[in-house]
Amino acid sequence: MMGSRTSRDTDMTAVSASLLARLNGFIETRMGLHFPPARLSDLERGIRAAAAEFGFRDVESCIEWLLASAPPPDRIKTLSHYLTVGDTWFFRDKRLFEILETRVLPEIIDSRRGREQNLRIWSAGCATGEEPYSLAIVLARLLPDLRDWKTTILATDINPVSLAKAAAGVYREWSFRDTPRWVKQGYFQRRERNLAIIPAIKRMVTFSCLNLASDPYPAVSAADAMDIIFCRNLLMYFSRERAQKVIRRLAGCLADGGWLVVSPVDIPGAEFPSHLRAVPFPDVILFRKETDARDAPPPPRLSLAKREPAASAPSGKAPDPRPDSIPPVSGPVARDLPGNQARLLADRGRLAEALALCEEAIGYEKLNPALHYLQATILQEMGRSDAAVDALQRAVYIDQDFAMAHFALGHLLPRGTEAEKHLGKARSLLEAYGPGLPPEGDGMSTGRLIELISAMQGIEGRR
After folding, report:
1. Are residues 175 and 111 in the same domain?
2. What share of the chain is helix, strand, coil (3-state, %, to 5)?
3. Which CATH number is 438's domain given?
4. Are 144 and 113 in contact (CB under 8 A)?
5. 340-394 confidence digits (pLDDT tens)
6. What b/e sequence results for 414-440 when a residue is b if at least 16 CB atoms lie within 10 Å of its CB, and e otherwise?
7. Among 48, 133, 188, 233, which one is most buried in terms of CB atoms within 10 A?
8. How confident is the model at residue 146 (pLDDT cuts 50, 70, 90)?
9. CA-closest candidate to residue 186, choices 116, 121, 91
10. Is residue 280 domain-shared with residue 351, that is, in the same domain?
């Protein structure tokens, strides 16, 4: 029976491990969310908040009620509000949006202008709406004849509270951190201390509640298939098996030649369908659906071998501008490409190839701490923890302020003074970094990382 709503405080008695494990299985089955051991504290914190919302003062009674009563979808959606993190901002990942605006969308637009002038984009896991509205702004910039086009931007999320804020289209300054100034000046109206999206952009986006783990996906007829699907910083909350199932279903919603956009943190170890081909851009890797999987070439393998400069192309023949035919590049971006490719290979389980490419890159850039950190990540996946520690120690020797390398060392080293020293250093660096996503942080905020460090330090203190 549900408790009184006279108080929103719940009993802080620790939830038993067995009950928390049962809840974890229930959450994964009904919502697709997976809480590994390192994140069980997040699950417990979330269910405590949800218990108060449901009217319980005893959190274990709330869990038993959830497990026994097969709660209706609206209860599941309420629960999602406390178990998902919707922190995002406009034009998050500038490089991605630059490639979208200069490479991906122009190709689609040019192929359809004067014929079937339609575009369909889906933002899956849209949180509070910053991503789909950013996409709408990009389309408005690219299409001076927007009224002559049939555009669809579908934005879905499991969290109804986030969707309500997205539909309102009113944001605080925090949603514009690291966002170009022209975005606020051209597409928002000041509303006291907040900013409201202008009506013309707001009308371009349709919001809907959808559970990627269980609800039916949008129609996939040839006329309705999606040209681009964004599903970023979401699959990381699923188990590997669930994430792969969602990837397959998303691929089924794509038009031939359509693009799937995920984050590197979303796909560690995930296997993509053969008809989704990895296409590397500078600093970004997207996935494109082949027209016929039998004709799909293998994912391109970048190398540090010298490339011929663009000027050496035959006279009168410019490099192919299509997104899947990358012209030669040079400078820092070119040097980072092997690192991106190594990450891709590691994410697809090709660890030996990833390690070889990473070590080749280190041979050219011995003082690049990010490459040593990537090497450590791959070595750890291969079960070579001692070698991973050596790589991490090289990373912090090169850059003593590399927070994530210190964090990883604190995790891998045997419990003791040395591990505690690195955890303390990571914590102080993250606290100085402030709110946001630190470099190489796998999409975790500084706040969440500090919470993990606190938990690890607490375990050490009890030994």
Report:
1. yes
2. 50, 10, 35
3. 1.25.40.10
4. no
5. 777 777 766 778 888 888 888 887 778 888 888 888 888 877 778 788 888 999 9
6. eeeeebbebbebbbebbeebeeebbeb
7. 133
8. very high
9. 91
10. no
Q: Please state, in angstroms and rounded to a whole number, the distance separating the CA atoms of residues 87 and 401.
A: 25
Q: Are residues 395 and 420 in the same domain?
A: yes
**Alpha-carbon distance 65 to 347, whole Å?**
38
Range of the domain at 45: 17-83
- The span from the CA of 65 to the CA of 3, in Å, is 11
Would you say residue 316 lies in a domain? no
Chain centroid to Cα 174, Å, comes to 19
DSSP letter for 140, please.
H
Q: Write down the pLDDT at residue 222.
A: 53
φ/ψ (deg, to 5) at 441: -90, 10
Q: Give SS3 for 149.
A: coil
The number of beta carbons lying within 10 Å of the beta carbon of residue 51 is: 27
Contact at 8 Å (CB) between 75 and 54? yes
- The structure tokens listed for 327 are 């012209």
Structure tokens at 154: 């579908």
> Which of 83, 106, 125 is the last residue before a domain boundary?
83
* pLDDT tens digits, 71-120: 666 677 678 777 766 668 899 888 899 999 999 999 999 999 988 899 99
In Å, the largest CA–CA distance within the chain is 80
Please list the residues that pair with 228 across neighbouring strands: 121, 259
Which residue type does 110 have? D
In the numeric block, the tokens 């919470």 are attached to 451
User: What is the rounded CA–CA span in Å between residue 31 and residue 213?
Assistant: 6
171: helix, strand or coil: strand
The pair of three-digit structure tokens given for residue 161, joined into one six-digit string: 């509270």
* 448/314: higher pLDDT: 448
Report phi then psi at 244, rounded to 5.
-65, -35
Residue found by looking up tokens 């630190």 in the block: 438
In a domain, residue 3? The reply is no
Q: Which residue has the tokens 């850039």?
A: 365
Question: Do 448 and 375 fall within a single domain?
Answer: yes
Residues 177 and 90 sit within 8 Å (Cβ to Cβ): no
**Separation between Cα atoms, residue 165 and residue 155, nearest integer Å:** 13
Alpha carbon distance 76, 81 (integer Å): 9
Question: 333 - beta bridge partners?
Answer: none
User: Are 431 and 339 in the same domain?
Assistant: yes
